[in-house]
Amino acid sequence: MKCHLLHVCCAPDLVIAYLSGARGDVFFYNPNIHPKAEYEKRYNEVLKLANMWNLNVIDVPYDPENFFKLTKGFENEPEKGKRCEICIRMRLEITAKFAKENGYRSFSTTLTSSPRKSVEMINKIGLEVMKNFGVEFLPNVYRKSPLYNDAQRLIKQLGIYRQNYCGCVYSMSSKQPQLITMR
């Protein structure tokens, strides 16, 4: 059996998780990230860290259609609302499914590193998904790590790209142009 599958949403969150002791194969499943150029930028930053720390990265296709299909009707929801819950559940379910099908003992996510996310919601969903897929979910609260400030310094020192919005088209800041295309 393989040990652990770590769902990673972005490089800054991987830094705090890694410094806090998280290890395992990296699973970058984030079809919510929009536009595709942003997805690629975040993925490349994760690859840079994975290469530096000798982490295995699972190649996962970019699939924004799944995100748009599942969140249809929730476009106007506020951050941390029902749309975010749907998005997090989708990502953790796909992670757990992959873990189950590929013989991993456990899975977790770096999503709890972000102050933009509800840690309680993420861990609750992870525990529900665990019951449905039969792969252990390891709840965490990376943003409360005593190494959080060290991680912020390392991110800056390494020149890691830090995004200014969660990832989906609906969370883009007003400073960024709203994109019409779905790819």
Structure, explained:
The protein has a five-stranded parallel sheet with strand order 3-2-1-4-5. The protein is α/β, with parallel strands linked by helices and 183 residues long. It has one domain: HUPs (Rossmann fold), CATH 3.40.50.620. Helix 4 (82-101) runs parallel beside helix 5. The chain is globular. The chain contains six helices and five strands. The longest helix is centred in the middle third of the chain and has 20 residues, at 82-101. Helices cover 44% and strands 10% of the residues. It catalyses: epoxyqueuosine(34) in tRNA + AH2 = queuosine(34) in tRNA + A + H2O. Catalyzes the conversion of epoxyqueuosine (oQ) to queuosine (Q), which is a hypermodified base found in the wobble positions of tRNA(Asp), tRNA(Asn), tRNA(His) and tRNA(Tyr). Disulfide bonds join 166-168. Belongs to the QueH family. GO terms for molecular function: 4 iron, 4 sulfur cluster binding; epoxyqueuosine reductase activity; metal ion binding.
* CATH topology (fold) name: Rossmann fold
Radius of gyration: 15 Å
Name the strands of the widest sheet in spatial order.
3-2-1-4-5
**Second rung of CATH, namely the architecture:** 3-Layer(aba) Sandwich
Biggest pleated sheet = 5 strands, parallel
Contiguous helical run count:
6
Query: How many domains is the backbone divided into?
Result: 1
Mean pLDDT: 91
Low-confidence stretches: 174-183
| Alpha-beta classification | alpha/beta
CATH homology superfamily name: HUPs
Pathway: tRNA modification; tRNA-queuosine biosynthesis
Function: Catalyzes the conversion of epoxyqueuosine (oQ) to queuosine (Q), which is a hypermodified base found in the wobble positions of tRNA(Asp), tRNA(Asn), tRNA(His) and tRNA(Tyr).
EC number: 1.17.99.6
Binding site for [4Fe-4S] cluster: 9-10, 84, 87
